[in-house]
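Handout, section 4.2: multi-component inputs.
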Amino acid sequence: EVQLVESGGGLVQPGGSLRLSCAASGFTFSSYWMSWVRQAPGKGLEWVANIKEDGSEKYYVDSVKGRFTISRDNAKISLYLQMNSLRAEDTAVYYCVRDRGSAFGWFDPWGQGTLVTVSS
Amino acid sequence: DIQMTQSPSTLSASVGDRVTITCRASQSISSWLAWYQQKPGKAPKLLIYDASSLGSGVPSRFSGSGSGTEFTLTISSLQPDDFATYYCQQYNSYSRTFGQGTKVEIK
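Output:
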């Protein structure tokens, strides 16, 4: 069974940093692009970033460029999101997702999500 | 970025009803469109990709159609498990975007 399990969320002050992790299982992790998608409380979905199979290409939504860094460790079968200079508007559930179809396709499956709250 | 607009935002329906949700793109996205179902407190689940291809394990009462800028998700006979929020998502560009969601409620 394909499974994605996020961790690392929590409460952080504005301007602070947090690192999210995603442990993958049930598929050949190193053969897929991977993404992070977020959802603010009571709001819709927003793609945040994705990374190529070997980590050589990365793409970000404009609102997080220069603040967030996506990375992966294929030996540890894990995906990461380093979030710096956090703002209140970054408060959301962050989902780890597998890219399908191509580098820029649909998302399947989704992890259960980890909540990040940015507040003083 | 390509803007995705869903209608209606909320839909009230009864078990057994045929339900249709519309998604419009701000520019042509060919057939690069997916649909997801999300229940409260849960992660979204893929229903449809490439506008009309059914995701693995998805019941056949779900179907998708359209191309270019206008797309529809149809549930042929609404079941109790289908009351949820539905999102469309385009993948015509690297900056993938979602519609605002359509909540299907019990009438």
